[in-house]
Amino acid sequence: MVLAEELYVSDKQGSDQDGDGTEQNPFKTPLKRWAVISKTQMKNVKKLYHREQTKTDTKDQKEVKIYQLEPLREQRVKVFGWVHRLRRQGKNLLFIVLRDGTGFLQCVLTDKLCQCYNGLVLSTESTVALYGTVKPVPEGKQAPGGHELHCDFWEMIGLAPAGGADNLLNEESDVDVQLNNRHMMIRGENVSKILRVRSTVTQCFRDHFFSRGYYEITPPTLVQTQVEGGSTLFKLDYFGEQAYLTQSSQLYLETCLPALGDTFCIAQSYRAEQSRTRRHLSEYTHIEAECPFMSYEDLLNRLEDLVCDVVDRVLKSPAAALLYDINPDFKPPKRPFKRMNYTEAIEWLKEHDIKKDDGTYYEFGEVCAPLHLNINIMNIVCFCVSLWGQVDVLMPNVGEIVGGSMRIWDADELLEGYKREGIDPTPYYWYTDQRKFGSCPHGGYGLGLERFLTWLLNRHHIRDVCLYPRFIQRCRP
Ligand code: ATP
Ligand code: MN
């Protein structure tokens, strides 16, 4: 059909289907006009078609995590993640280091992929979906995993403010600013490494106990009885009754012995510690165990086994590399641990010229606790055994990481104990019952997971190994 230069349209009589634009046979609307497609139009149509194609390509594209990429080199993949680092080189080149929690991936975006609007506004900490082919990096170049993603398409998922997290904090920020922005800090390489090690270490503790035949329990942390002194109790109103946040799950573990035998738990404990020290938290993860029919010697051996076996497991795990990244000089402890009784510890301090803050030596009768403060000059793992059937495991740099003891198992002795401490035995009836219904010599211990990690990772401050540390005047985020 040849179109006349002048087109006739008629809203009433015309038809876009049957009309031909003549006066006799008008179109309904002026829209209906055919012409040979122009070059620009063709280009646009092709572009649209290509975009549609990629869309369907991307729909079926398998999504993979960064840690799975090595065997997928030379294949097209789709990766979700956060923009960890961003570098623009000229107008046509954009380097992204993508982070997805499983690893880091260098990605290259070229031409239109970085010249588009999203490419121009992209900021660190934004979330994106990247599509492309994984290629080994050229000789002499370095990238995480030894490969990089050559993008052919990408989508913005969540745009972060310009500058990413840099507006909230940086390496030089004040400690309190860093703690207020801990939710951003944990995205950083160092803190996330620590959290990853912490996850593995927790698993290794569990594996240790399971391999030794223990059962795990999850005791309540809202309690009406106390284990340690009242001065570090967090009190709370429990539907009109006085209750506390637990300081230790020891008492509940003891009740499990007749039911489950060797038992452990990994639960939160709370201490209203008034002082700011680098090894005290007000909430911490307490790894506790109790064992029936156990001697004092058994207790010491089990503690040695616990520490050495867990370290062994960590070093055999993929987290070992992270551990050495953080603490390159780490040396696993050697068995046997040095065993010192209380008297020997006092002598040891004198021999090593370690004095109290007031410049005098520790004397017999003073609680072992001050020992911990000075243990950082010691390079050895050490048991400090007190006169009272208690044992502490002391580590270089952090001091006490475990407190353990043989428990009172005689009913009368326990009742005496309540009286001596001025404790009303009434709410402890269930604990006392353990001594009436088939008592047995038993013992157990509590290990602070954060203290263990502080030692393992050689951190100065215990708060470094916490997700959101809790200590005096700090209860957020
Ligand atoms: P410390 O004398 O160091 O204050 P403690 O003797 O009061 O400790 P225990 O009641 O024996 O501690 O608790 C057992 C373990 O729990 C300790 O060896 C330690 O690893 C951990 N722990 C105790 N209190 C804290 C705390 N405030 N913050 C972090 N860990 C703690
Ligand atoms: Mn202790």
Care to describe what's here?
31% of the residues lie in helices and 23% in strands. The protein is of the alpha+beta class and 477 residues long. The radius of gyration is 34 Å and the shape is elongated. Strands 6-10-11-16-15-14-13-12 form an eight-stranded mixed beta sheet, sandwiched between helices. It has a five-stranded mixed barrel with strand order 1-2-3-5-4. The relative contact order is 0.08. The protein has three domains: 1-50, no CATH class; 73-158, Beta Barrel (OB fold (Dihydrolipoamide Acetyltransferase, E2P)); 175-465, Bira Bifunctional Protein, Domain 2 (BirA Bifunctional Protein, domain 2), CATH 3.30.930.10. Helix 6 packs across helix 8 (296-316) and helix 6 crosses helix 9 (319-326). The chain binds adenosine-5'-triphosphate and manganese (II) ion (MN). It catalyses: tRNA(Asn) + L-asparagine + ATP = L-asparaginyl-tRNA(Asn) + AMP + diphosphate + H(+). One of its GO terms (biological process) is asparaginyl-tRNA aminoacylation. Pfam families: tRNA-synt_2, tRNA_anti-codon.
